[in-house]
Amino acid sequence: MKVTGNMLRQAMRRWDFELKMASTHMKESLWVFESDPEGRNLDAKDLMDQKEKAERAIALLQELQVKYNLTVQVVVKDTNRLETMSLCRAVKIVGGMGRLQKAWEVIATDTGEDRYSIRGKTRDKDHEVATRAISAQTAREKARHFSKLAGSLREAIERGNQTEVEFEVSDWLLNS
């Protein structure tokens, strides 16, 4: 069957919902009153079977997602060059590039002033004044670079997740 990354994610969401529903109703199914017909509709054993099926389905889908992410290749633009990598690597590094972007933005906007305390930028003994270790211009350029790189990775991941790949997979797993 041909699958896409989006199909796998949607199937995992559906199975996760099934797992949550069975878990939610499990506790209330453990004790029933004979005179309560509503309470008898929830069978603890059936709910446990549903939980097991959902847990197994999620594990199979996660395994399939790893295979998919290692199979699909994406092209990422980094500055003036294109880099081909697995979808798996792109997914793993996009978060780090976003964090680097934020860190460079903090450096670029740091004025050296703190409205709640006085930062020591001078030394009284010599009247030496501290200066920026990294210029605001350099920090802005780095922030822009990592912003573009993170955006390029997100676009590549989106395109990659639309790629169809042939896998042996049971229909029930994707169409629960």
Question: Could you list some keywords that capture this structure?
Answer:
176 residues, mainly alpha, 2 domains, elongated
Q: How do the strands line up in the largest sheet?
A: 1-6
Characterize the biggest β-sheet. 2 strands, antiparallel
Number of helices: 5
Instruction: Please report the total strand number as a whole number.
Output: 6
**DSSP strand content:** 5-15%
What is the total number of structural domains? Answer: 2
Model regions low in confidence, pLDDT < 50 over at least 5 residues:
none
Radius of gyration: 26 Å
Shape: elongated
The helix content, as a percent range, equals 55-70%
Structural class: mainly alpha
Distance between the termini: 15 Å
Average pLDDT score: 89
SSE topology string: EHHEEHEEHEH
Task: Explain how this protein is built.
By secondary structure, this protein is mostly helical. The protein folds into two domains: 81 residues; 73 residues, no CATH class. The chain is built from five helices and six strands, in the order E-H-H-E-E-H-E-E-H-E-H. The strands form three sheets. A two-stranded antiparallel sheet has the order 1-6. Helix 1 runs antiparallel to helix 2 and helix 3 packs antiparallel against helix 4. The longest helix has 28 residues. The radius of gyration is 26 Å and the shape is elongated. The mean pLDDT is 89.
Summed up:
With 176 residues, the chain is mainly α. It has 2 domains: 2-72 and 165-174; 74-113 and 128-160, no CATH class. The chain has helices at 5-29, 44-71, 87-109, 136-160, 171-174, and strands spanning 2-3, 73-78, 81-86, 122-123, 128-129, 165-166.
